[in-house]
Write a structure and sequence with these properties.
2 copies of one chain form a homodimer.
Chain A lengths: L3 H8 L3 H9 L10 H14 L5 H8 L4 E8 L3 H4 L1 H16 L3 E8 L4 H8 L6 E5 L6 H9 L3 E4 L9 E5 L1 H14 L5 E5 L7 H14 L9 E3 L4 H12 L9 E3 L3 H13 L9 E6 L12 E4 L2 H16 L10 E2 L2 E3 L11
Parallel strand pairs in A: 1-2, 1-3, 3-4, 4-5, 5-11, 6-7, 6-8, 8-9, 9-10
Antiparallel strand pairs in A: 10-12
Chain A binds a DNA duplex (30 and 30 nucleotides) through helix 2 and helix 4.
Chain lengths: 345, 345
DNA sequence: ATAAGAAGATAGAACGTTCTATCATGGGCC
DNA sequence: GGCCCATGATAGAACGTTCTATCTTCTTAT
C-alpha cells in the first residue's frame, strides 16, 4: 500500500501538498500549482495510492460508519420482516450517502454489550437503535455525552431524544374500525409482547375504536400473544378451547407473523378465514400478500422509517440541524381478503 | 475521552507501562511491578479510560471487523430469507468471537463498488461474499493480494479460493426422487435465476433423478423462473395457459419463495395442492412451514453455512490454517404436506 | 522604490496507540 | 569486589493521515 509519503517522495513534493491534492477539500491554506498537481496525480495513479481511512479517522475523528443496533432474541433478525425491512431502508440511505454500516446487537434486555462495544467506540460516528427497551440507558447515555443517536420505534421519554415512530395508535384504531364496519362486535386483539414500544399504543387504538362505537371492551378478548408466529398460533389454540359462545368473530393480531400463526390454528380447527373468523394483521410487510388468504393489514412505512432515521442520524453526525426531532409517520389500512367482504361499500 | 498519556501522567508512570498493563497481552519485554500495576488500574478506572480502537488499528493493522457483502438487486436483503439467514449465522459467530460486522453491498452485477469500498479498505480484516457472481473479479483480486476472503455459495474456480457450499446437486435429486416415488412422472422444474451458482446444480440433480428413473426429460417442463415470489407466480400462470394435457402433475420449484408464488397461481386456477399438483420447494427456511399447505422442501443448512464461513474467515484472519478450503454441506428433504401423501411408506 | 499581499510551497506537530531499544538498580555468586 | 542477570522501568520511533504555522518568491499598487 502506497502512502502519502511515498507519493510525495516520488513526485518531489511535500506530504502536505500531496494530501491537499489527493484528499483535500480546499478547506485550508495549502496552495498547490497546476504543474505540481498534475505530477502528484500521475504518481498517485502509478503507485496505486489509496487513502488509509483509519489514519484519517484518527485525526478527523470521523469514520463515516454508522452503527445499527438490533434487539436480540435469538431469531429476531432472520425471522422478523420488520427488522430486515428497517435494515433495508437504513442501508439504502447509508449507501446513498456513502457511509458504511456496522451491525451490533443487544443480547436480550441486556444492552450493556452495546455500551461496551458500539457506544464508546470511536469506530462509529453515530448509533441507530431499533426497538430499544423503554427508558433505554443507552439512549440516556448518548444524550448525556452528546453522542449522535436516533431510535426507531421508541416512546420518547425526553424532548431531546431523536426518534422515528409510526402512528401506532391510529393503526390499532383503523384495524378495529374496519372490523366494526364489517359488522363485527366481538373482536379479539392478540396483544403484542409486553415492553415493546408498539404493543401498548396498538392496544389503546383498539380500545378507543371500540369505545367510540359504544362497545364495552371484553377483557377476555384481550389475549396475550406476541410478535412471533408461534405466539399467534398458541394464542388462538388457547382461545378456541373456550366454549364457542365466547369466541370472537374477528381478530386483530399483533402483527402479520402473529396473524399467520393464528390463521394456521384456525384452519386446524376447521375454521375458515374470513367466513368463520375475520382477521387483520399489522405491519403489512411483503409477507402479508403471500398468505392464503392475503392478509388485511395496517401498513407501516417501515422502509421509510429506516431511511428517515438514517437521514436524521447523518444530519446529526454532520452537525446539521434536524427540524423535527420526533417525527411520527402515518399509517393506513391495506384491505385484502382475510377480513372478509366489505359491507359498507 | 481519557488517553493512555492522561493515565500515565496521573499515575506517575510511562505510557509504555500503562499500555502494557491496560491493553497488553504480555507479548513483549515491558515489565511492571505490582504496585505500579495497581496504581495504573486505579487511575484508569477513575478517569474512565477506554482504549481507542482506531489508534490501535493504525499500528496493529488489525481491526476486528469483518465485511459482509451481499448481492444487491433492490429487494434481496429484506425479502429473501436466504440472505437474512446467512447473515444471522455469520452474525452469531462474529459476536461469539468478539468481532464486528460491517455491511456492504454489490450493486447488481457491478462489484466495483465493493472493490472501491470494502476490499482495499483496511477497516476490515477480511471479506465474506454471499452469492458472488461466477468468476468474481473480487475473489480473484483477494487471492492475488492475499486478502482473507470466503465465498458463500460459489462454484470454486480455483483450488485456492475458500468457499462454503451446500450439496445442491443432491438437493435437486432428492426433491425429484421424492416426487417420482410418489408416482409422478410429469414433473416440472421452475429453474432459478441464470448466473446464480445454485441454479445449475439443482437443475442437474433434477435431470439426473429423471434419467435414473428412466424418464426422458421434457424440455417444455424446464420452466425459466427465478428465486422470487413473482417469478414462481408468473411461471405457473404461463405454464397453465398451455393445454391441460401438457400440464405436469408435480412441480419442483427453484426455492420456497418461488414455490409460494406458484401455489398462489395454482389456487387462482382452482387447482389444489397437493391433490391436483404436488409441490416441492427449496431452502426450507422458516417460511416453508407457514405456507398453506406447508411446503415440502430441501433443507439447506443456511444458518450453519454462515457460521462456518465466519469461522473459516476468522481463522484466516488470525493466520490459522483452514483444513477444508471448500466444504460442501449435506442437504436433506423435509417432507410436509405440499407434496402429497407418501405412497411408498 | 517600496510596502503589501497573493501564490506556491514546506516543516512538523498532532491523533492515540504498540513495541523495540535502552537504561537503572540491586541481589546472588564466585 | 566485580560480574551477571533478573526486575522494573522509560524514551521515543513508528503507523498514515490532517492541518496550522511559517517561509519564500513574485506581482502590483502607491
Amino acid at each position: 500500500m502506497a502512502t502519502l509519503r511515498d507519493v510525495a517522495k516520488r513526485a518531489g513534493a511535500s506530504v502536505s501538498a500531496v494530501s491537499e491534492v489527493l484528499n483535500g477539500k480546499g478547506r485550508h491554506t495549502i496552495r498547490v500549482g497546476q504543474a505540481t498537481r498534475e505530477r502528484i496525480w500521475a504518481v498517485a495513479k502509478e503507485l496505486g495510492y489509496t487513502p488509509n481511512p483509519i489514519a484519517r479517522s484518527l485525526v478527523t475523528r470521523k469514520t463515516g460508519v454508522l452503527g445499527l443496533v438490533f434487539p436480540y432474541s435469538g431469531a429476531f433478525i432472520d425471522r422478523n420482516p420488520f427488522c430486515t425491512q428497517v435494515m433495508s431502508g437504513v442501508f439504502e440511505e447509508v449507501v446513498r450517502e456513502r457511509y458504511n454500516l456496522m451491525l451490533h446487537t443487544a443480547l436480550g434486555d441486556d444492552w450493556s454489550t452495546v455500551e461496551e462495544s458500539a457506544l464508546l467506540d470511536p469506530r462509529v460516528d453515530g448509533l441507530l437503535l431499533v426497538l430499544p427497551s423503554p427508558h433505554s440507558p443507552v439512549i440516556a447515555r448518548c444524550l448525556r455525552e452528546g453522542f449522535p443517536c436516533v431510535a426507531i420505534v421508541y416512546e420518547p421519554d425526553s424532548d431531546d431524544v431523536y426518534t422515528v415512530n409510526a402512528d401506532e395508535f391510529t393503526g390499532g384504531r383503523l384495524a378495529t374500525e374496519h372490523l366494526l364496519e364489517l359488522g363485527h362486535w366481538r373482536i379479539a386483539h392478540l396483544v403484542g409482547t409486553p415492553g415493546i414500544a408498539t404493543t401498548e399504543p396498538r392496544k389503546q387504538g383498539y380500545l378507543a375504536a371500540l369505545a367510540a362505537a359504544g362497545i364495552q371492551a371484553d377483557p377476555a378478548l384481550l389475549v396475550p400473544a406476541g410478535f412471533d408466529w408461534q405466539n399467534g398460533y398458541e394464542a388462538i389454540r388457547t382461545l378456541l378451547e373456550r366454549p364457542s359462545s365466547q369466541h370472537p368473530t374477528a381478530i386483530f393480531a399483533a402483527n402479520d407473523l402473529c396473524a399467520e400463526g393464528a390463521m394456521h390454528a384456525l384452519r386446524e380447527r376447521g375454521l375458515r378465514v374470513p367466513e368463520d373468523m375475520a382477521l387483520v394483521g399489522y405491519d403489512d410487510t411483503w409477507f402479508a400478500t403471500m398468505t392464503h388468504p392475503p392478509l388485511t393489514s395496517v401498513y407501516m412505512p417501515i422502509y421509510e422509517m429506516g431511511v428517515l432515521a438514517a437521514q436524521m442520524l447523518i444530519a446529526l453526525v454532520e452537525g446539521r440541524e434536524v427540524a423535527d426531532r420526533q417525527p411520527v409517520l402515518p399509517v393506513r389500512l391495506s384491505v385484502r381478503e382475510s377480513s372478509g367482504p366489505i359491507s359498507s361499500y
